[in-house]
Design a protein that fits this description.
Elements (H helix, E strand, L loop, with lengths): L3 E4 L7 H12 L4 E3 L6 E5 L3 H11 L8 E3 L3 H7 E3 L2 H10 L4 E7 L13 E5 L4 H10 L3 E2 L14 H8 L5 E4 L10 E4 L6 E4 L5 H8 L3 E2 L28 E6 L2 H17 L4 E5 L11 E4 L6 H17 L4 E5 L7 H11 L4 E3 L2
Parallel strand pairs: 1-9, 2-9, 4-7, 6-10, 11-12, 13-16, 13-17, 14-15, 14-16
Antiparallel strand pairs: 2-3, 3-8, 4-8, 5-6, 6-7, 10-11
Helix pairs in contact: 1-5, 9-10
The structure holds threonylcarbamoyladenylate (TXA) and magnesium ion.
Threonylcarbamoyladenylate binds next to β6 and β7.
């Protein structure tokens, strides 16, 4: 199939193009579109065939549920069978925005969309193109990240094009996304809200609004790799570059020395080696190809660039990749959750 590429300026929405893309969705087709987190691959959430087509295009297991994107709070009420008080409070505080809530579903959303679960993940994104598309289509839009399953999530239209050209009906190019990491997922189906996937909205921000919040232990650090995560998608290998990625952690000068030593040895052995570094450290490396993920003191920048850098490592054919640790104060948990998965939890600790 031919994928139609739309170009829409988020600051100045072209109604005609939105209408055309919305028509594709209404007819059961798939359109990828930008959100503030990552690009999503959209289909009509009420149409089981559209959900099946999403799984097929991504090569994603069909027991891995999709997020339903809405453009008004009342749409959450329409598809939930019950809503705890926390839902309204969190929506007031963070919607539209990079937070997804899991609630009990009623019969309106088909099981194909929720991977067979009786709960549904719902998000009201904060992006003019996403919002216009949802509104114009009159659909709630089921949308996972618009990457081939297992690859890093797409933060630009070109990433989507590389993965899905020829497999979907449309792609709206609305420029680079802002945040670059997928939304925080909060499960509201138990007594205490639980973070199933860390994101830009962190635990402290949620707790200010609803009191104590738990974090699924399976998504934190390396000690808990044996625990099964509650969000099905967090169980799969993910975000992984093709090269063998290892994270080196410890005091900065020791990290640099260790990466430098390993990359020298790799190079001598004829292995293509890539290094994920920061603005502050990039000049310290003497071997390998250094890609800069941003300034260490600017964690938003690191989040924004991480997936693009992982993809670039693939494009460059890097065989061994070493990354510094980015356990930054505010969104470090989300950044490291993605990076540890990408590294299959291979961490080298230097003192
Ligand atoms: O920022 C985002 O959330 C992006 C943009 C496009 O909105 N979407 C996204 O979707 O990251 P996806 O499908 O790549 O990730 C959704 C995650 C998966 O790990 C999935 O297993 C989990 O949410 N999930 C969805 N519904 C769930 C449910 N009912 N219970 C538990 N986990 C659920
Ligand atoms: Mg995804």
């Amino acid at each position: 199939m031919e994928t139609k590429r739309f170009h829409i300026d988020p600051q100045q929405i072209d109604r005609e193009q939105i209408k055309e893309a919305a028509n594709i969705l209404r007819e059961g087709g798939l359109v990828a579109f930008p959100t503030e987190t990552v690009y999503g691959l959209g289909g009509d959430a009420m149409n089981p065939n559209a959900s099946n087509a999403i799984y097929a295009a991504k090569g994603r297991p069909s027991d891995n549920p999709l997020i339903v994107h809405i453009c008004e709070y009342c749409q959450l009420e329409e598809i939930a069978s019950e809503l705890p008080d926390a839902a309204k409070k969190l929506a007031d505080a963070f919607w539209p925005g990079p937070m997804t809530m899991i609630v009990k579903k009623n019969e309106k959303i088909p099981l194909e969309t929720t991977g067979g679960l009786n709960t549904v993940a719902v998000r009201f994104p904060n992006h003019p193109i996403a919002n216009a598309l949802i509104r114009e289509s009159g659909c709630m839009i089921a949308a996972p990240s618009a990457n081939t399953s297992g690859r890093p999530s797409p933060t630009s239209a070109d990433h989507v094009w590389n993965d899905l050209n020829g497999k979907i009906e449309g792609l709206i190019d609305g420029g680079e996304v802002k945040i670059g990491l997928e939304s925080t997922i909060v499960d509201l189906t138990e007594d205490v809200p639980m973070i199933l996937r860390p994101g830009y909205i962190n635990k402290e921000m949620l707790e200010e609004v609803v009191g104590p919040v738990k974090v699924d232990p399976a998504v934190l650090g390396t000690e808990n790799v044996h625990i099964k995560p509650k969000a099905p998608g967090m169980r799969y290998k993910h975000y992984a570059p093709k090269g063998n990625l290892k994270i080196v952690t410890g005091e900065e000068k020791n990290v640099i020395a260790e990466i430098d030593r390993r990359s020298r040895e790799d190079e001598a052995a004829g292995i293509k080696v890539g290094i994920i570094a920061t603005e502050e450290t990039k000049h310290a490396y003497r071997h390998g190809t250094v890609l800069c993920v941003g300034e260490r003191k600017n964690e938003d920048q690191i989040a924004h660039n991480l997936f693009a850098v992982l993809r670039e490592m693939d494009d460059l054919g890097m065989e061994n990749i070493y990354s510094e640790d980015f356990s930054t104060p505010r969104i470090g948990q989300a950044i490291m959750n993605r990076l540890l998965k990408a590294a299959a939890h291979q961490v080298i600790e230097v003192s």
